[in-house]
Write a structure and sequence with these properties.
Layout: H1 9-15, E1 38-42, E2 49-56, E3 61-65, H2 74-78, H3 82-88, E4 93-102, E5 106-111, E6 114-117, E7 120-128, E8 145-147, E9 151-155, E10 161-165, E11 171-178, H4 189-192, E12 200-204, E13 210-214, E14 220-224, E15 230-233
Antiparallel strand pairs: 1-5, 2-3, 2-4, 3-7, 4-11, 5-9, 6-7, 8-14, 9-13, 10-11, 10-12, 11-15, 14-15
Length: about 240
Amino acid sequence: MDSHKLFDPVFRIVSRTAYGVAFASVSAVLVAAEEKLEPVELNDIRGMRYCEFLLIFDDRVDIYNTSDSAGCPDDLFKAIDVTKLAEEHGADKAQLNGPHFWAMDDQTVGMGETKTFGGIDARYAATLPLSAVGSGQGADPYKPYTSAKQQTMIFKAGSPVYELVDPEGNTYILNAYGAEVKDGDPANLANQLNPAEGWSFKVSTPTEDLNIEGSTDTPVQMVGDDLHQYYTLTGTGAQ
């Protein structure tokens, strides 16, 4: 049996009072004015599996996420034809992101309309600049960028957090990790990553809850590693 939690309808009923999602984003988020976002809270999500769909247009990237939907069946996700997906949604290109697993305990973030991608429902999460796709698989590794979206992440005291430390000593906390992580344990990234010069990876256990909060008014700094996991800076934008 997969050691990761799978999102199911029971979890959705319990946690639906608000809502949450976190994903890789680059530069300032260009949230479409016509999108009506609602805050949704997701609780007890450490290890929960999710997928994302990127619709790429000539001026933006629209992101849809399954965390507030009925999940991301592996057979359907693997069968998706991204060329067909782009045509169906009027985009220039499409990309698949995931599956990934959340590394925080709780979060709240804004989400919008639901669309269906190859039989999988996902909700609108953000609109990003074209730089969000980087070289084709997300932001370039170990190059920090700014993310401006409504999102609060909570890492509970007594649970491990996974950190990238930059050459100046700034600490970034892992938001989510991919299927490439050995045995589904982010601690194994210590032996899997090849950090850029001056960067390092470590695991720590906070004695108090760690909250990281961002908005369009108070953006946060993020960075990706060479396996395309994403981390958020503590300190600026963190409480």
